[in-house]
Amino acid sequence: MTQSSARPSAAPSSPATAHADGPLLPLLFVAVWSTGFIGAKFGLPDAEPLTFLAWRYAIVLVLMLPVVLLARAPWPASRAATGHIAISGLLVHGVYLGGVFTAIARGLPAGITALVVGLQPLVTALGARAFLGERISRPQWAGLALGFVGVALVVAQKTAAVSGAAVLTMLTPAVIALLGITAGTLYQKKYCPAFDLRTGAVIQFVPTLLATAALALLTETTQVRWTGHFVFALGWLVLVLSIGAVSLLNVLIRRGSAVNVASLFYLTPPTTALIAWALFGETLTGLSMAGMALAAVGVWLARRAKG
Length: 307
Known about the structure:
Layout: H1 14-17, H2 24-33, H3 35-43, H4 49-71, H5 79-105, H6 110-117, H7 120-132, H8 138-160, H9 164-191, H10 197-219, H11 228-255, H12 258-263, H13 268-280, H14 286-304
Helix pairs in contact: 2-11, 3-11, 4-10, 4-11, 5-9, 5-10, 6-8, 7-9, 8-14
């Protein structure tokens, strides 16, 4: 446990998280997190995926370090606590985002990527039972299953449009992303559920930047076209996703069970589909709308039921 447990008032989340157990914070997290796919769509044409992410992480650190120093935000009480936070960040950010961005850059449609990552609540439920000792009730299992069916319906049309032979190569990074976000959520819930969000962000993004930049130097050209679209996407992903959404995720992990937090990811594909419809005119079929409703009911049931 980090020293934020002893000094909860030091966390910058006190006003916004006072009612974190209510519906507002989870819904805000879903809405913000879902824009990540849109940011990738805007920015990836101008930079390779790991190069894009390395710039993103570097800018987050440049912005967060002065905040930490000026606010004299508390650091973890031990090296072990610091290490746990760093490992959770490497899994949640480095492995997950690296996999998602690489999959999309290789041509895997965002819908299929979302479907693969949409397995997370089910995989997390299995891991939470074995790794955290969380008891999963039958209504929760029903909600998780219903949510997955809803996600599958939302992306069914896009999935059918891609050939099976091409999917296999593109699918591997998405599966790695799924394993990363699942392992990261379970690891953080077990070893470092509570920490100051400001110093925690620095600790999480330092190893993530180092690992991502090293892989980018080894596997990519690291060239960037600084177009308006790329600058907008980078700024959005830094400020709204890496600082805003990640802070919300850390608060939710601190306050809820791993299954409850993971179930929210079922709402990401439907929300992304709605955003894509509003911004890019992508069609929403009746099947997609039904899937959105099922996903919402599944998340409600999984979060309402107690283990």
